[in-house]
Amino acid sequence: DGGITQSPKYLFRKEGQNVTLSCEQNLNHDAMYWYRQDPGQGLRLIYYSQIVNDFQKGDIAEGYSVSREKKESFPLTVTSAQKNPTAFYLCASSIEIQRVNTEAFFGQGTRLTVV
Amino acid sequence: ILNVEQSPQSLHVQEGDSTNFTCSFPSSNFYALHWYRWETAKSPEALFVMTLNGDEKKKGRISATLNTKEGYSYLYIKGSQPEDSATYLCALPGTSGTYKYIFGTGTRLKVLA
């Protein structure tokens, strides 16, 4: 079955450490996205990628980095520069970023806690 | 940043009741509106993609309407069932030229048996 897989489901990080969240899709989608959810807030866009080897900052990119070396994979690194990293992170993909009449598909998310 | 608002934030209804909630957005530069259902411990799943003013979509007991001129969409659930309990999100592509999705904060629905 095609879909998006995020791992791990839960992640604990010590302050000052970088950590990488995995997102893999086998839907052959060009566009991939990372969102962050905090209590009482909507999903906020961190980074997005329209195509392999290309990515753009979203609305809250500070303290995060991404890569898109393969079409299937869009890992997110939460760096020590991110001041408040404890949150729920959701990865998504869509066929092409311009095709707004097609839906996005989502992973199950990773809950990151800084201890 | 495009501002997408959903109301109410949460809703409790009895099994069998019908309910509806709203997604509001600026009416300028509209491209499309998506509705997603997000059940606890699962991934959000698309319900509807709407693009034209006056669009009406239906899937089983759930339907949605779109008014792009006044900037709102309604989601209706007829005869709510416990399995309808979820957070319902609407999303719109963002500022012109980027097509990024902007999500509302969602409406959390709890259907009581």
Task: Tell me what you see in this structure.
The complex is a heterodimer of chains A (115) and B (113). Chain A is mainly β. Chain A has strands at 4-7, 10-13, 19-25, 31-37, 44-51, 54-57, 64-66, 76-78, 87-94, 105-106, 110-114. In chain A, strand 5 and strand 6 (54-57) form a beta hairpin. Chain A is built from no helices and eleven strands. In chain A, strands 2, 4, 5, 6, 9, 10 and 11 form a seven-stranded mixed sheet that branches. Chain B is mainly beta and 113 residues long. Helices cover 0% and strands 52% of the residues of chain B. Chain B is built from no helices and eleven strands. Chain B has strands at 5-7, 10-14, 19-24, 33-38, 45-50, 56-59, 62-67, 72-77, 86-93, 101-103, 107-112. Chain B starts with a strand and ends with a strand. The interface between A and B is medium-sized, with 27 and 27 residues.
Short description:
The complex is a heterodimer of chains A (about 120) and B (about 110). With about 120 residues, chain A is an all-beta fold.
Radius of gyration of chain A: 13 Å
Strand content of chain A: over 45%
What is the tally of beta strands of chain A? 11
- Beta-strand portion of chain B reads over 45%
The main sheet of chain A comes to:
7 strands, mixed
Number of helices of chain B: 0
Report the helical percentage of chain A: under 10%
Give the SSE string of chain B.
Answer: EEEEEEEEEEE
The residue ranges of chain A in which pLDDT falls below 50 over 5 or more consecutive positions are none
Terminal residue distance of chain B = 40 Å
- Order of SSEs of chain A: EEEEEEEEEEE
**Which class of secondary structure composition applies to the elements of chain B?**
mainly beta
What's the tally of helices of chain A?
0
Average pLDDT of chain A works out at 93
Low-confidence stretches of chain B: none
Say what oligomer this is.
Answer: heterodimer
- Principal-axes geometry of chain B comes out as globular
